[in-house]
Amino acid sequence: MWPYPRTLAHRGGGTLAPENTLAALRCGLAYGYRAVEFDVMLASDGVPVVVHDPELGRTVAGSGHVNDYTAAQLGAMEAGAWFGPAFAGEGVPTFEAVVDYCKAQRIWMNIEIKPAPGFDVPTGKTVARATRDCFAKEIAAGELLPLLSSFSIAALDAAREAAPELARGWLVEQIPEDWVKKAKELDVVAIHCDHQQLTPELAREVKEAGYGLFCYTVNTPERASELLAWGVDGFCTDRIDLITAVE
Ligand code: G3P
Ligand code: MG
Question: Matching SUPFAM superfamilies, A to Z (predicted)?
Fold first, then answer.
C-alpha cells in the first residue's frame, strides 16, 4: 500500500536550504534524509526543471516566468542567494540533474508534477516520460520506483497515459467527499493531503479503502507522531532538523 519511506524532506532540504536546489538535496542528506519531495515544471524548451513557482522573483532572481526561459538559462540564474550568501551561485537544476544526484546518493523521490498554468498535459507527459527513461533499468528489475504526484488532474492523466508503469499519488488540500470515485478514475495508489485538513476518520477511510496516505507539510515531531498513529503512511517536512528521518 505504501512501500515508500515515511519521512521526506520537502523541496529537498525543507527550510534549511534554498528549496528545490542541489544544495537542498545535499542539506537533506546531511540531516539523514534519503527521501525527498520536489517540484517539476517545464522550461521554455520543454526541458523539465526543478522549481516551485511559475514566476521568477521569490526564489529565483529575475522577472517573468519559468517558461520564458530555457533550462540552460534557468540553470545560470541565481536560485540560492535569496536564502543566504553561502548558497549564492545555486541555479535552477534540471530534473535530470536532480534525479542523477538522488540516484547516486540512493535518495528516494516523490516527484511532484507542478505545471505552469495551461501546461498541465505537456508537463505530466514530459515528467512521466523523463522519469521512465531515467529509471528504465529499475523498471526492468522490478525495483522500487519514484512516486509521481500532482494537484493537476490533467497532469496525472497525461502521466498515466505516457508511462502507466509509474505509480501516481493524487495531491489535494482537503480530501473531497467523492474521493474514492475520483481516485479510482485517476488510478492512483495514494492520496496526498494537507495534514491540517485531515481527520482520524478520513485517515481510516483512506487506509481501509487500500490507498497509501501521505501528508504535507508536517513540521513538529508531536504532529508527526499523531498522524502516524492515525494511520498516515508518510509525510514531508520542512523541519528536517526537528524530525528524525526514518525509512
Ligand atoms: O507534495 C506536497 C507539497 O509539496 C505540495 O505543496 O506547494 O509545497 O508544492 P507545495
Ligand atoms: Mg511540492
Answer: PLC-like phosphodiesterases (SSF51695)
Q: Which long-range contacts (C-beta less than 8 Å, at least 24 apart) are formed by 184-188?
A: 186/153, 186/156, 186/157, 186/160, 187/160, 188/156
**For 155-174, what is each residue's pLDDT tens digit?**
999 999 999 999 999 999 99
Strand spans (E) along 32-164: 35-42, 48-50, 108-113, 147-150
Locate cell 491540517: which residue?
A: 196
- Domains in the chain: ranges and CATH: 7-237 (3.20.20.190)
> Grid coordinates standing for 204?
481510516
Q: Which atom of ligand 1 is nearest to the CA of 10?
A: 4
How far does residue 73's CA lie from ligand 1's centre (Å)? 25
